[in-house]
Amino acid sequence: MTESPTTPQEALPLLQVEQVSVRRNRTEVIRDVNLEIYPGEFVGIVGPNGGGKSTLIQAILGLLKCQSGHVLVAGKPPMSKAVFGKIAWVSQAAAYLPQNVRLTVRELVGMGLLNNKNWFSPITSSTSRVDDAIQMVGLEHLANRDVNQLSGGERQRAVIARALASGAEFLLLDEPLVGMDRASRNSLLKLLDSFCHDQNKTILMISHDIAAMRQTAHRMIYLEETIRFDGPPPHFPSLEELALMRGIEDVHGGHHHDHSAEHCGGGDHSFSVSVYPPKGG
Ligand SMILES: Nc1ncnc2c1ncn2[C@@H]1O[C@H](COP(=O)(O)OP(=O)(O)OP(=O)(O)O)[C@@H](O)[C@H]1O
Ligand SMILES: [Mg+2]
């Protein structure tokens, strides 16, 4: 990613999150979240474990109720009919498919075509959409393979192909890179980027891989209870700045040694880590 596309301000936002707070188990896990995403944007969310990333996505989908504030997708509440089929979600656990179900890649991807209209009738048409999606993620050679015989990365691709087959314009991806090797990650990220540029798809993707996100996303968000950074990847704070934002003291007592690798803001070094220790111990 070299150019950073300007936000198409003349378009209407595809996603509007206004002053959203969500409680789980009586604890407020995200608060005062404000976010607008425009068609064709590729937005990456990073943040500590338990920071509320998956919660935000579930609130966007309408799966979790907002304690305050509201979410609009294409100007409508997320669970409304008008939104149905516009959003595809690849959940954090999506690649952990049930072991006891026998399903080929093509069958799994075909499930992406199911919607409220055809749920009870077998899908006969649109198989080309399934094949297109399988091809897009590069799994043609495995289309008839049992999904349980795939590698983690291949399974991840199959799950993403299912989202693509749905034809949704807004893809919400929760940690889709987990379990993938570097080469698969890179090609998947390129693929996702091309969806935004060529098909005007909109992507909101959670990842712990800050380096990968910096190289691919058009915009990055740091979420820890609330949005603490929202801007172009080159402006994303360094790990030290993030630590300061989180109130973590420097264990070296303020003696700064400037390892460039400690900055997610510099260079093209690549690290893929859960950078932040889990919250609360
Ligand atoms: N089903 C649940 N019921 C109650 N609390 C939950 C539930 N899921 C998550 N939480 C809590 O909500 C907070 C935010 O969790 P969330 O899963 O949104 O974080 P996350 O940023 O996605 O973390 P991770 O990077 O580990 O996936 C955490 O404190 C978590 O313990
Ligand atoms: Mg999560």
Given helix and strand content, the structural type is alpha/beta
Q: Which ranges are low-confidence, i.e. pLDDT below 50, for 5 or more consecutive residues?
A: 1-5, 256-281
C-alpha Rg, in Å?
Answer: 19 Å
The averaged pLDDT comes out at 81
**H-E order:** EEEHEEHHHEHEHEEH
List the ligand species: adenosine-5'-triphosphate, magnesium ion
Give the CATH architecture of the domain at 11-85 and 209-248 and 258-281.
Answer: 3-Layer(aba) Sandwich
What report would you give on this structure?
With 281 residues, this protein is α/β, with parallel strands linked by helices. The chain has a domain at 11-85 and 209-248 and 258-281: 3-Layer(aba) Sandwich (Rossmann fold). Helix content is 25%, strand content 21%. It has seven helices and nine strands; from the N terminus they run βββαββαααβαβαββα. It has helices at residues 53-61, 105-110, 127-136, 152-165, 182-199, 210-216, 239-245; strands spanning 15-24, 27-37, 42-46, 68-73, 87-90, 170-174, 202-206, 219-224, 226-231. Strands 5-6-7-3-8-9 form a six-stranded mixed β-sheet, sandwiched between helices. Strands 2-1-4 form a three-stranded antiparallel β-sheet, covered by helices on one side. A hairpin with a 2-residue loop joins strand 1 and strand 2. Helix 3 (127-136) packs across helix 4 (152-165). The protein is globular, with a radius of gyration of 19 Å. The protein starts with 14 loop residues before the first strand and ends in a 36-residue tail after the last helix. 37% of the residues are buried. Mean pLDDT is 81; it is low at 1-5 and 256-281. It binds adenosine-5'-triphosphate and magnesium ion. Residues 53-54, 92, 174 line the site of magnesium ion.
